[in-house]
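MODEL INPUT / OUTPUT PAIR
PAIR INDEX: 1
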Amino acid sequence: MSAPYRPGQAPWPENQPQRPDRPPPIQFQDGPPPGGGTGLNWPVRIIGLVAIAVVSGFVYWFLNNESPQDPATGYGDQPPSTVVTTSGEFDFEMLEIDKPIVDKDCTKHSYGKIKDFLTENPCTQLVRAIYQAEIEDEYGGFRTIYTSVSVVEMPDEAQATDLRELTDTDNTGNVNDLVREGEVTIAGLKTLSAGGGYDSSQDGREVVIVEADYDPEASDGGSGEELDKVCGDAIRLSAEMLDAVS
């Protein structure tokens, strides 16, 4: 409702609105964005991203395959303090020494009839090492087994056969293990030949002799058959031993 008209007051203009004028509404127009350019459509953008990904993948592959490193073999100039072998039934770890010990005189590293035989038939090389393996028992604990591996190389295959036949015979002596000679120290054990674990093999001029015994502090249980089983698996270590000293 408008205010009443008073005398002397100027008349209301005809068709004049009674509220202040408002600015006209903003007009939106369809058309390209300022600058006159047109953006890439989505298919073109996707193709560009795919191309960038392909190029990045190729560069990554090229950088990682240009000069592949050969896997380490043997023990190199600085052999590790322990060597773990896991390719057989049991896991063996070499004890104390960095690599197997090599000798040329088997006579002074043997005893019994084996020593007499090697005195008359000198070997050409003796390689020895001591390993340990952990065997899980029926109670969830572990028994530690120490294993001596000796590789005797004879001048010919016939002498190697005679040596193996003699060492496979009871009470004929053997090659000294490194515990017997004090090269490796194991608390509670003076030698590994007293435990009863034994196995041997022959490959041409080389005879592998393996003996084993339990850690005196290991959990109860175990058997001679278990020791023999570990010895049989340890024969494979001879190849790695020879590689390490060649």
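PAIR INDEX: 2
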Amino acid sequence: MLGLQSISSSDLGSALTGHGIITVDESALGQIEAGADRVLEEVGIRFEDDPEKTLDLWREHGGIIKGDRVFLEGSRLRQIIRGSAPQSFVLRGRNPDRDTGIGAGQPAAIAPIYGAPNVLLPNGRRAAGSLEIYRRLVSMAHAAPAISNTGHMICVLNDVAEADRPMEMALAHLTLSDKPFMGTIASPEAAEQVIDAVSMAVGREPKAGECELLHLINATPPLTYKENPLKCLRAIAQRRQACMVTSYMMMGATSPVTGAGTLIQGYAEVLAGLALAQLWSPGAPVVMGLFGIPFDMRSMLPCYGDPASHLVQIYAVQLARRLGVPVRGEGGVTSAKMDDGQAGSEGARATAASLLSGADFILHGAGWLEQGRSVSIGKFKREAKAIAESCGFGTDQSALPLPFDPRLEADLRRRLRG
């Protein structure tokens, strides 16, 4: 199995500077790259339901097309990525003082949980996510000094029509915070609508190396990209906004059971997505995400908190460093159903592994519970406070956001109603 070199320090404050303090065997990284190259050449990647665009683009750049499967050369993909993908970029907020650098030695950016349908309230009661709760969570994220990005879909807006959710979430982030946040991938059209709104709210001229939104673009392991992520990737990259191209694998279910096999498969998947973003728009900002969770064959659930995930995280960071792009880390993920000792222990280990390995953007940094099916308000507050204290942010709340232009808010709400 892949081996770790000794860790020289456990100071999270030093790790947060973006350099990390965990290193790995370079020869093992070379083996992972070689294995991924073989997967790309012999098995290929499926790109579903976008033949007129994605498949034609791959054909122009040397891909071998069989149906919706594309066989690619790994070394060529790395050349494309290294040739134009930026090593760092800046996410801009409404308040220029809160602009956040991503990558190349910048401090790690931390965002809260993403995608929880349910909420564990402070009184111990579970509730479906709602717009009212969402606005409360955004305010909490703004107030927390350790959370530099207020995220996206902190909980699902179950009381809002699905078509209206992207703009309602954007309005919550814009009116209750002036920090950067993440964009929607509900559809290419929704992504562009939110990009337009946030660009107007930020109100600054486009600038090379800077953008307003980071979007989560997921592969579907094993070795597949679905139609909507592909179309969102194209639309977002062409608008010069950032894409966090991620392979999120369940080890033994959607990827090999071993850490090495999971790293090989995931690296092949993200190489294809990252290169595709650069082919659509050379120089478009990207973040690489590669994470594996052991899958329990008894419960048929992923085992968040298992140390095997931390090993995958550590190697993922080093693979991204070799590639020359910023890299995602996982925050307080846990399988615990309650905000208890298990939740605290598993979440803290996951966050520490990301910080110590040198991840640039840490998602799920606060609030994750129950395999991501719930956001815990208590855990959110506790984790945000713990990160602030451990990493030298202090415990004072962030200053209140700058006022949001009421005329722009009224205009955006008219568009929402329309």
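PAIR 2 NOTE: The CA atoms of residues 127 and 205 lie 42 Å apart.
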